[in-house]
Amino acid sequence: MNYMNKEIINCYQCKYFYVTWNRNFPKGCKFFGFTTHKLPSTYVFETSGDVCHGFVQKNRAE
């Protein structure tokens, strides 16, 4: 899936993504320092018109 041929970033796989206790803004981005009710990458795209450039794949210990 993409927005106008731009790749959608899956925040759940990013090391900067976190879940907050705030019901109104349950998703957060440590890279950009904000919380939102949408996925942070969607919010970044809607406000800037560009994909998130802060994505870093999580390291999963196996």
Task: Describe the structure in your own words.
It comes from Alkaliphilus oremlandii (strain OhILAs) (Clostridium oremlandii (strain OhILAs)). This is Uracil-DNA glycosylase. Helices cover 15% and strands 21% of the residues. The chain has 62 residues and is α+β, with helices and mostly antiparallel strands. The chain has one domain. A 3-stranded antiparallel sheet has the order 3-4-5, with no helix packed on it. β3 and β4 form a beta hairpin. The N and C termini lie far apart (29 Å). The model has no long low-confidence stretch (mean pLDDT 88).
The chain-level mean pLDDT equals 88
Number of helices: 1
Helix/strand class: alpha+beta
Order of H and E elements: EEEEEH
Quick one: how many beta strands?
Answer: 5
Question: What is the gyration radius calculated from CA atoms?
Answer: 12 Å
General form: flat
Number of domains: 1
Q: Catalogue the unreliable spans.
A: none
Q: Tell me the span between the first and last alpha carbons.
A: 29 Å
User: Strands of the biggest beta sheet: in what spatial order?
Assistant: 3-4-5
Residue share in β-strands: 15-25%
Helical proportion, percent range:
10-25%
- Could you give a short account of the major beta sheet? 3 strands, antiparallel
Keywords:
flat; alpha+beta; Uracil-DNA glycosylase; 1 helix; single chain; 5 strands; two-stranded antiparallel ribbon; 62 residues
